[in-house]
């Protein structure tokens, strides 16, 4: 019987992926169109990875420039200023709010996100959904470590837990902890989980019924 659901946030509970994509494009638009396009592609190909890791990679592998601490902090702060208010206003994935409201007593809910923890907590509080979750986790913790921590600290069984995500980083976090994975298909990542043996969904509307079938 499933007792615990771990959710990614962006693209799973809230339709906010396009906001993050636009922000990465904006962050590096002064580097030229080709660089901007390469940055956006890297971002999309590595969904779920924290912005801290992405910015360091972009400087090291795409721009091939040194990244000093002051520039790094400024870029992170600018990214945050570009996305926070927009994510607060973004629509829910279909069925997400109904799931949180209707099944909070049946399941324990957790969030495992690549968003910086302080920013994530602010967004969730502003959206007035903080009361639905037992715990919220964000970067700089790695997703594999977050899931391991959730299971260990709360003495949860992996076979009674599912992880709902939309990125390969989510799948790997679930797999490394023997947690069943449910992948959300999105238009910009069509076919991402086609070669993976997991439940695939387009939104959260049918998730309660699917969980019942899992026993």
List the defining traits of the structure above.
215 residues, alpha/beta, Rossmann fold, six-stranded parallel beta sheet, globular
Write a brief caption for the model.
The chain has 215 residues and is of the alpha/beta class.
Task: Indicate the topology.
Blueprint: E1 4-7, H1 17-27, H2 33-45, H3 51-63, H4 69-89, H5 96-102, E2 108-116, H6 117-126, E3 135-139, H7 143-153, E4 161-165, H8 168-175, E5 180-184, E6 199-201, H9 207-214
Question: Could you describe the 3D structure shown?
Answer:
The protein is of the alpha/beta class and 215 residues long. It has 9 helices and 6 strands, in the order βαααααβαβαβαββα. A 6-stranded parallel sheet has the order 3-2-1-4-5-6. The chain starts with a strand and ends with a helix.
CATH superfamily of the largest domain: HAD superfamily/HAD-like
Unreliable stretches covering 5 or more consecutive residues: none
| Amount of beta strand | 5-15%
The count of strands amounts to 6
Question: What fraction, in percent, of the residue positions are helical?
Answer: 40-55%
What's the architecture of the largest domain in CATH terms? 3-Layer(aba) Sandwich
């Amino acid at each position: 019987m499933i007792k615990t659901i771990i959710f990614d946030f962006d693209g799973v509970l809230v339709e906010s992926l396009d906001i993050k994509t636009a922000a990465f494009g904006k962050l590096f638009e002064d580097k030229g169109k080709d660089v901007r396009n390469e940055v956006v592609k890297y971002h999309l190909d590595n969904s779920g990875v924290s912005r801290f890791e992405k910015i360091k990679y972009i400087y090291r592998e795409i721009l091939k420039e040194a990244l000093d601490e002051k520039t790094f902090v400024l870029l992170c702060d600018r990214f945050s200023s570009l996305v926070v208010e927009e994510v607060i206003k973004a629509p829910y994935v279909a069925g997400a709010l109904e799931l949180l409201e209707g099944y909070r007593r049946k399941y324990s809910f957790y969030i495992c996100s690549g968003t910086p923890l302080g920013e994530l907590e602010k967004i969730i509080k502003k959206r007035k959904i903080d009361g639905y979750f037992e715990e919220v986790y964000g970067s700089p913790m790695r997703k594999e470590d977050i899931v391991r921590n959730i299971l260990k600290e709360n003495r949860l069984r992996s076979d009674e837990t599912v992880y709902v995500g939309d990125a390969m980083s989510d799948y790997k976090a679930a797999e490394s902890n023997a947690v069943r994975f449910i992948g959300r298909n999105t238009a910009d990542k069509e076919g991402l989980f086609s070669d993976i043996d997991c439940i695939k969904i387009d939104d959260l509307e049918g998730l309660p019924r699917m969980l019942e079938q899992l026993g």
